[in-house]
Amino acid sequence: MKPVILESIRFSSIDVTTRTTWVFAEIFDAEGISEVVEITSGNNSSAVAKTLREIGNNINGLSISGDSELLSLLTITTKALETDTVLATAMSALRTSVSCFQARYESLSLTEHLGGTVKDKVPLYANINRSLLGDNRSPTHFAKAAEKAVNNGFTTIKCAPFDEVTSDMKLGDIIDASKTGLERVRSIRLSVGNQINILVDCHSRFTLETAPHICAELASIDVKWFEEPVAPETKSDELSQIASIIDLPIAGGESGYGTSFFDNLLDKNSLEIIMPDIKFCGGVNEAIKASLSASQKGKRFSLHNPSGPVSQLLSAHVTAAVSDSMPLEHAVDETDWRADIMSPAEEIRDGFFWIPIGHSIGSVLNQKIIQNKGVQWGIYTDKY
Length: 384
Prior knowledge:
By secondary structure, the protein is of the alpha/beta class. It contains 13 helices and 17 strands. The protein has helices at about 45-60, 70-75, 80-85, 85-105, 110-115, 140-150, 170-190, 210-220, 235-245, 260-265, 285-295, 310-320, 365-375; strands at about 5-15, 20-30, 35-40, 65, 120-125, 155-160, 195-200, 225, 250, 275, 300, 330, 340-345, 345-350, 350-355, 365, 375-380. The strands form three sheets. Strands 5, 6, 7, 8, 9, 10, 11, 12, 14 and 15 form a ten-stranded mixed sheet that branches. The radius of gyration is 20 Å and the shape is globular.
């Protein structure tokens, strides 16, 4: 297989809302070919860009035979990546870019390079939470957002309704504070009817004592999964105890790096559904490894992805390559110009992501949109 020799990086960022900025990295090889990855990481995005720039300088001109070789070339340990989110995000971006370059060198789609068969589309579920950030948090707002998604062809809706809850509250206070969140979920159910699936993300706001009570309430509303009632990264034993006494499947793991992280959660029966995020988990190849391990253990796989169109496209290729994958997450209605960031434009229709035809990911950044709405800077500048 032709080795990859990386030469430079060009960063782009684009403000989507007052709360969301998407950040991309176009990574160039020695022949001037580029592959684009996404490094959006909230308040950490600037630090990730800086780290990626530094790592890029360290491997500039080196011959890379595969994405996993980057760790040895940079003398970075898996343990360091498991405990340093910024480093893990930068390394995930580089590892993904190497996989994309190799797919292009082989004249394959990324799906094929990852061992899958070309598909024209993959199923999505609608995460309505990004469109509700800010003041639009009433039960009525949740219901209207869910109804809009259903009208656009989605059959599964995810929300994060428990704004008022924090895990450091007293037990009784958590139960009381959760009532508004439960009302938001009930409002969705009343709006969309019984044929639509509802998923609930708890953002690790509960405790070992309170999660079972909340789960029982959600089960009575016919919710289909219970996502991260406590943090998998730090409370895997508590998560395992919760899983043993509730009926709903627990999903999670969005911040974890490496297959061993997910294997640990699965072996403890902490999770029924693992949710790697390609921006954090080690990239597209590591996500594939995690999915295979989950399948062997009789568990399920659904990529985490409340992100921009580059991450969506990369995640769609991984989802297409995993034959038993559950639907892929899509953050609906953050902006009406989202699709135009890519060329060809992102196509989401009837609850499916339609994968563009072509080598590697099959699409590139639309430079006109980036230049009109965002900013670009090179690897040798100090913007970040």
